[in-house]
Amino acid sequence: MAARQQAIPHLAVRGTKGLHVIDGKTNFERPEDVVCDPVQNCRCFKFSKDGCLFAWCNSQSLQVVDLKTSQKLFEIPKQKTSLLSFSSCGNYLCTWEGYYTTPDNPKGFNNLEILRVGDGSTVKSFVQKRQDTWEPQWSNDELLCARCVNNEVHFYENRDFSSVSKKLFQQNVTNFSLAPGPSPYKIAIFVKGTKAAPSFVRLFQYPNLEGRQALANRSFFKADKIEMFWNKKGTCVLVLSSTEVDTTGASYYGEQTLHFISIKGEANLVPFDKKGPVYSVDWNPNSAEFCVIYGYMPAKAKIFNNKCEPIFDFGTGPRNLCFYNSHGSILCLAGFGNLRGVMELWNTKEKKLISKPQASDSTHFEWAPDGLHFVTATTSPRLKIGNGYKIWHYTGNVIHECAYEQGHELYQVDWQPVSDGVYKEFAIISVSKPLNAPAKVEAYRPPSARATGKQGIKLHEDEPAQNAKQAELSGAALKNKKKREAKVKQSEPSHQIPASTQQQQAAGAPMTENEKKIKNLKKKLRQIEELKQKQKEGKTLEKNQLDKIKVEKELVLEIRELELDS
To answer: What is the tens place of the pLDDT at every residue in 484-507?
Structure first.
């Protein structure tokens, strides 16, 4: 195993056994709790962006701890907080709980709060009914904060929440995304279409938020909802549009398309060569390429560049998720959920498979910030039995495992983030034989067919990766050639084509007239053999078929005469 520059980061675990932040400095050989809250009803937790702060709500109070000093910064009574989010620099903590009204308060209450991390005081509070767009978004320097409010996006500047600095108004705007990266800030908004007008995504540069000042625009008719994925530099965004129902009837699960938009004004549809849903999208941290898993199972995985041109094709397989590590040097293609949990870990520079372990029944995957390790977990409510988590090395070794006993459930597992540059890129080890590789499962065959050697019918053929296609095709072609030659040898009469003719055919020389006649006559002899076999099996032949059998001897004599003349 490659040496680590630092210990593995902390791992936060939440379940019916309470909340634990586990120290990874001993490679989890002797786990120690950095934070421990035994309350079973812990509702949520969150690390700050740099991993220095940790907040959680245990259904009784909201607490924030500084992990560097182990000092508790504040604790305030909050029973119903279900979502948490830190600002970019960790100066503010946003909390959200479900909106409701009471007879005493029919207008409801401010269920979204922005708290000052230093003392827990409320800086600003809002009514936020929708959960999917609850979270305020911050620029990397924390000098711009934005939130979506009824056909508008409100902006607050310089940590001043006393008034809205600027508004972006657009009818039917339902979602937005603030790009990462330094000033000038970029914003993408999504406007859901109507029967007469298409949906569209527009990119703006703050504070130029008028329609005619848009950096780029992409419209599409089929979009009930979207997801936006910015690259790390904030120069390009991928927009995954989805419809609830596929009007063509081709898919029960709706229809998805993936669009590429650049702040330079470029907008393209990412081309796919296989029909079906888009399961997963992930940017390489180098911001120059992205991976997509798409198509009906077995799904295809492919890497594209910023011109939407395919760079590498991983072929097809049982996968529905893709994840780059923090350095972009390893890509994991995984099949979780109702798939078998097979993971393919690829060296992205050499385009070679490193290992192929399996984590059955997994519902969660996350790379550790060091890029060497990752965690897989089986969590509730997706699965309520067999809960637990495993920590892996990228070569396929399990270095730590925690299984929950019957009656206990695991809800959430997350790595502690770290700042960029803490972990340096490492040399990737080549594994000659993948560790923990899943055993090959043979298709069921009835007892009567097990000794025959006959292969079962395959529903599909998996396509190999681009770097293995040539070798695999060559091997398959050779195998098929041998099968054809054996079949011809069994069905042909004992006489052979002269050696001189074989040499000419092998060299690719054109066939003579005699050779063409011999070939046609032998074809007729094979047909006669098939008819004679049917006759032996008791099948009744027609008059023209019986006439063909009668001329068999004449055909054999004619072939011999032609061979002598050759």
So the answer is: 656 545 554 444 444 444 444 444
